[in-house]
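Please check this protein record:
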Amino acid sequence: QVQLVESGGGLVQPGGSLRLSCAASGIIFSIYAMGWYRQAPGKQRELVAGISSGGSTKYDDSVKGRFTISRDNAKNTVYLQMNSLKPEDTAVYYCNKQLSIDGPSFGSWGQGTQVTVSS
């Protein structure tokens, strides 16, 4: 059974940093592109960063230069380093498998991790 478990969220002040982790089980993690998505209240879920099986990365313009996606295939984990956080980054963050670096996602979602950027 495929399971994705996100962690690392929390409350942070504007300009602060967080590192999110997503641990995958039940899949051959290394063969999949992975993505980090976020969903703010009243908005649709959106892709913010993607990473290919080979390690190529792509970012939404809203996070480019501030967020870094990476993966550790030995640990079946994908990470999202978030720096210079802004209030508009507040959302529940999810990871998922993707058909390509640009998405779309497929398969079940995890529970997500809440990120709140506020002073």
